[in-house]
Amino acid sequence: MDVRDAVEADAGRLSEMTDAPTDVMRNLVHDRTVRVAERGDEIVGFVSYDARAQTVHVTQLEGEPAVCDRLLEEPVRFARGEGMAVELLVPEPDDVVQSAADDAGFDRVGSGPLFEGTPTVKYRLDG
Q1: Global confidence as pTM
Q2: Residue 15 burial (CB count, 10 A)
């Protein structure tokens, strides 16, 4: 599996993975750091994140368990290099992303906000 920066042409595949409109995913690629995981020529997962106020915020993480584990390394590596913490909101139930957070050493720090009526769990990894 290879991991690379996302480009605008990836928006269609990211849209398929999330059921979000293609233009929303295109904006995501422009507005945040987005890394995609590929097997051969197929995108099998992605992570998006941004940094503000001494914290890297993971905004989306998609893929099968091993892919999510690998992709979560990207914002963690960036945060460690900058001396920042990482935060991740995980919709309940999302066992794949929760497991990836646990595997990466994140601590469950409480409930997060509701997104479209879905409760979230807040995870944090201090730098």
Answers
A1: 0.92
A2: 17
